[in-house]
């Protein structure tokens, strides 16, 4: 199966997916990488000779034009699945409509707690003792799609956002690669808010 990975940051989740895809029995390949800015994830694509799409909001008249361009770029790649791995933009209705049910996101908190772009900092500030990571299908909300898998991670008293995020990422990269592997081979059953891999 072909997977397109979308990223905006340091690309640690991307690298975990690439490593899993490189395993001999892997049922999926990362056929292209899409970034919305100049970032380490884009450099990884160049280093690994993987097709790279750069689609920056500022290169388009407005958000709708950007969303349309993003949809068309990814549609041309014809992936079986799209994975947002630290992609820091909200996907628009055009993109979501085109790939509905086939977009997987990883969020560094136990949804529905702490959605949005600061889930790690918000969990730390709240003082929870357990946070974690959630892999879910993307719908039109912000981190609101059906949950596929979660792993809990303890918060330590001396944690900073960075130390906590690193601890989350250490389990997140494994969970995301596991879920993508299972999804591409077994698909997903969605029943309203609930989703499970048969
Ligand atoms: C991950 O924790 C992801 O859940 C969040 O941003 C982080 C991306 O990390 N949205 P990286 O860019 O893959 O290192």
TrEMBL record:
Formyl transferase N-terminal domain location is 3-180
According to UniProt, the reaction catalysed is: N(1)-(5-phospho-beta-D-ribosyl)glycinamide + (6R)-10-formyltetrahydrofolate = N(2)-formyl-N(1)-(5-phospho-beta-D-ribosyl)glycinamide + (6S)-5,6,7,8-tetrahydrofolate + H(+)
State its Enzyme Commission number(s): 2.1.2.2
**One biological-process term from Gene Ontology?**
'de novo' IMP biosynthetic process
User: Which residue positions are annotated as catalytic?
Assistant: 107
Sites annotated Raises pKa of active site His:
143
Q: What is an example of a GO molecular function annotated in this UniProt entry?
A: phosphoribosylglycinamide formyltransferase activity
Q: Which UniProt keywords apply?
A: Purine biosynthesis, Transferase
Pathway, per Swiss-Prot/TrEMBL? Purine metabolism; IMP biosynthesis via de novo pathway; N(2)-formyl-N(1)-(5-phospho-D-ribosyl)glycinamide from N(1)-(5-phospho-D-ribosyl)glycinamide (10-formyl THF route): step 1/1
Annotated coiled-coil positions are none
One cellular-component annotation, GO: cytosol
Residues binding (6R)-10-formyltetrahydrofolate: 63, 88-91, 105
Q: Report the sequence similarity comment from the record.
A: Belongs to the GART family.
Q: What does this protein do?
A: Catalyzes the transfer of a formyl group from 10-formyltetrahydrofolate to 5-phospho-ribosyl-glycinamide (GAR), producing 5-phospho-ribosyl-N-formylglycinamide (FGAR) and tetrahydrofolate.
Q: Which protein are we looking at?
A: Phosphoribosylglycinamide formyltransferase
Instruction: Identify the taxonomic lineage of the organism of origin.
Output: Bacteria, Bacillati, Actinomycetota, Actinomycetes, Mycobacteriales
Name of the gene: purN
